[in-house]
Each structure stands twice: as C-alpha cells, then as structure tokens.
C-alpha cells in the first residue's frame, strides 16, 4: 500500500509515517515511480506505535518494542525493560504536571489579587460600565486587563 493508503488506514499523517520511517520504526520499498510502498503488516505496526506514543512514550522509547510491534503489544507480559521505560516516562510526566500545577496556582493567585485591587479602586458606576463593555467583548477585555495587571503593565492605573 502507498503512504496515503497507510495514513488513511491508521489515522497517522503521511508526515508522521515518514518520520517513523526515518526513525527506523517502519520500512518501505520504492516502486518504479519512486513512491513508498508499505507491506500489509505496516498498519499493525503503525497502530502499535501510535498506541505507545499516546501512552506517553517517546519514539526513542518505542524502539525498545521493535521486536513486538508487528503483533499485539499488549497481549504478552511486559518485559523488565518495558516496565522500566514506562516508569521513567510516568515520572517525567508527573514532574511536568506538578510544575504546571504550581505555575497555574501562582497565576490564579496573582489574577485574584489583581482583580480584587482593581475592583476596590473603581467607582461603582465605572465598575458597571466596565462590566458592560467586558460582557459586550465576550469577556476578552477583562482577561487582558487581568493579565496586564499581573505583569505590572496595566493600561490604566488609578491615581491616589
């Protein structure tokens, strides 16, 4: 099958398939016209590669599974190496999640503080006018003002 057919059968883009081939995870032969031609088992292999990538593994990690990519990678018992790789990848993902959670919490706290300070400084009639403008803008103006206040670059600073 040609690359477009393999892409359609697996849900992978042609670009991804060329990348997998460059990484040595799949192979093709060239037809007389120069087109890539993949064997029938390529769809199974690509499906397994995509499942492993979706589980959080990298292409380099997937190389470990080369001997079993043509069958059901989930059918047999995992090897010690596969378990080691999965545990390492899980630790990396947990570290990233923790770091992103800390950033989110800091940003939420900064926005909460900026919003409270801005609300106290506005006169009630100005706050109502701002709310109407914000509602008309679909909420975009308020978020931009909050973000500017967090960075210390608020467009409007009340005097006093």
From TrEMBL:
Residues 1-68 form the HTH merR-type domain. The keyword Transcription applies. Coiled coil: none annotated. SMART domains: HTH_MERR (SM00422). It holds the Pfam family MerR_1. Keywords: DNA-binding, Repressor, Transcription, Transcription regulation. This is HTH merR-type domain-containing protein. It comes from Kitasatospora indigofera.
